[in-house]
Write a structure and sequence with these properties.
heterodimer; A: 280 residues; mainly alpha; 83% helix; globular; B: 314 residues; alpha/beta; Rossmann fold; Alpha-Beta Plaits; 4-stranded antiparallel beta sheet; 14 strands
């Protein structure tokens, strides 16, 4: 049993190593990092401009928004990488060749997950270095709580990768995996935007059809927010902002549970879809 | 040793593989033939443990093969019809990656050996995606041999190779057989199979029609007459008339040369019928001769005529 576990861990390590090298060797990773830092810099420069014009410190933790924004960009990139990965392997036949060897669905997916998360961890020092430079320019402090939140963001990032792998495993080809991803993002963003829009409509008549619509959209948004791993990333930053460590624990636990559920569903999807696109 | 016992697979109403059984002994090459869509690939995927059979089982060296038995797959080296490489990896990185997956001992040494064996040493730092189709196929074979498995399942291993490459790969396969490996070889190049397969299995409509040595198969087609007719003009217009002759199972033509396969007829009568039909259709016969039956003739006869001759699989 232990030798089998050892063998599985070894295989996961080899697969993760390849995924890690591929991600870190790709120009798109550094483009995403550049975009993340660019967004953070832009948000901070707005704050600096406000301080200069009003003489006020706008936020207690001025790096909260920029750091969260940067991590959302990187997580989004991670999600796209995961969405493409399984479908690309299936499309070009390498998935089938891998399964000629001692690999099953779970070791394969765990290898992908570990490799992409490894890349996320490897990007963190680069992100942090960029943020330190921004801190020196703006004279805003990053704060130890936000650095802790940055480290803890690995857990929701795992959930984001797992959901990406699920979409990819369920898709027959790369183009359908992209379509699944766009649909999923459209659903989450669409629900939030619709709810926000309908909530702002002033309603005076208690019999107005706007009210049940608002309730329905609110319920949909609440459900989707609960299953979105991006929500947990945000919650961790909110909690870190106020030092609410119990809340962080809850978010991390839910995030971990979500990762496990998404991984198990991805395994089922991969088994259902199979390793090849071609039929005899 | 590779064993298939009653392998059966359905896709909805389609019976893709129906009760296929055979054994490939150590030190033996079994040619696995069949027309497109006959069930070859489905059978191979079940032998590789990628597809779960609805009925029956496969074993490698006594160990059960299947999606739930991934460790057994270490005993198999497989090459598929298409190379399926990581185009962005170099040859040596690709082999190192798979050496890691199969936990090959002393990987660098083994990679050097395999590269030497397959004459890929000069290409070790080339990107897999930049190789010609033939070299990509060789790299796939290198990957399959890397962990020195006792069983090789090779689906079209010479596909895309030039005659030199085909000879090299053929020699490697024969070497592997001489080292005691059980080799299942699926190929459309029947002359290749005829040259070095110890036994041949022919599958059609999911059923293994026959399992015999190439010589036995050719003997089974002893009742089949193959005529080569030389005409004064292209044979195409006469194909329809010739096909109407009773017993004709295949007609091929290449300019003024027509090749006709006739099943189980009286030889003299068959020659006469062909001669009379062609002359009657307006052709002038410049020459007519009988040719020795090949594995290809046996394959065509068995897969087109739908006969189930002696030696049918259990």
């Amino acid at each position: 049993m232990s030798s089998r576990l050892g063998s599985d861990l070894h295989t996961i390590g080899v697969l993760a190593g390849r995924e890690f090298k591929m991600t870190m060797g790709s120009a798109s990773t550094y483009t995403a990092l550049g975009l993340a830092l660019g967004l953070a810099g832009w948000m901070l420069s707005n704050d600096v401009a406000l301080v200069r014009s009003n003489g006020l410190l706008v936020h207690v933790a001025p790096f909260r928004g920029p750091l969260l924004g940067a991590l959302l960009v990187l997580s989004f990139f991670l999600a796209v990488s995961a969405v493409l990965s399984v479908a690309r392997d299936r499309d070009r036949g390498t998935l089938e060749v891998l399964f000629y060897g001692p690999i099953d669905e779970m070791t394969y997916l765990a290898g992908k997950l570990a490799g992409l998360l490894g890349a996320y961890v490897a990007i963190m020092p680069l992100l942090l270095a960029g943020l330190v430079v921004l801190s020196m320019f703006t004279r805003f402090e990053i704060g130890i709580n936000l650095i802790a939140a940055l480290v803890l963001s690995i857990i929701p990032a795992a959930g984001i990768v797992a959901v990406g792998l699920l979409l990819s495993a369920a898709a027959k080809r790369v183009r359908s995996s992209i379509l699944f991803f766009i649909t999923a993002v459209g659903l989450f963003v669409g629900a939030a935007v619709s709810y926000s829009f309908v909530s702002r409509i002033p309603v005076e008549d208690p019999a107005s059809p706007i009210l049940p619509l608002r309730d329905a959209l609110g319920a949909v948004d609440a459900v989707l927010s609960r299953i979105s791993p991006f929500t947990y990333l945000e919650q961790i930053f909110d909690a870190a902002d106020t030092g609410a460590w119990t809340a962080i624990g809850g978010s991390l636990a839910l995030s971990l549970a979500g990762t496990i559920i998404a991984s198990l569903l991805a395994r089922l999807a991969l088994r259902w879809r199979g390793v090849r696109t071609r039929e005899e | 040793m590779l064993q298939a016992r009653g392998l059966t697979k359905r896709y909805g109403d389609l019976l893709a593989v129906d009760d296929v059984s055979f054994t490939v002994e150590p030190g033996e090459i079994m040619g696995f033939l069949g027309p497109n869509g006959a069930g070859k690939t489905t059978t191979i995927l079940m032998l590789l443990g990628i597809l779960k059979p609805d009925q029956g089982s496969a074993t490698v060296c006594g160990e059960k093969v299947g999606p739930a038995h991934k460790e057994t797959r270490r005993l198999i080296g497989a090459v598929s019809e298409h190379s399926f490489l990581y185009p962005e990896m170099t040859v040596v990185d690709y082999l190192s990656f798979f050496a890691g997956i199969y936990r090959v001992g002393q990987p660098e040494k083994r990679i050097d050996e395999v590269l030497e064996e397959l004459m890929l040493v000069k290409r070790r730092n080339h990107l897999a995606g930049s190789l010609s189709k033939g070299l990509q196929q060789k790299l796939s074979l290198a990957r399959a041999l890397l962990h020195e498995p006792p069983v090789l399942i090779l689906d079209e291993p010479v596909s895309g190779l030039d005659p030199h490459g085909m000879r090299e790969v053929r020699e490697i396969i024969i070497q592997q057989r001489n080292r005691g490996k059980s080799i299942l070889l699926s190929s459309h190049a029947l002359s290749e199979i005829e040259r070095f397969a110890d036994r041949v299995g022919i599958i059609r409509d999911g059923r293994l029609l026959v399992e015999a040595t190439p010589a036995e198969l050719q003997a089974q087609t002893a009742g089949v007459l193959k005529l080569e007719v030389e005409l004064d003009r292209p044979g195409e217009p006469f194909e329809g008339a010739v096909r109407k002759i009773p017993g004709v199972v295949a007609v091929e033509h290449d300019q003024g040369r027509m090749s006709i396969t006739i099943d189980g007829s009286n030889r003299a009568q068959a020659r006469q019928s062909v001669s009379r039909t062609l002359t009657g259709a307006g052709a002038t016969i410049l020459g007519l001769r009988e040719v020795k039956g090949s594995l290809e003739d046996a394959f065509v006869t068995l897969t087109q005529a739908g006969t189930s001759p002696e030696g049918q699989a259990p």
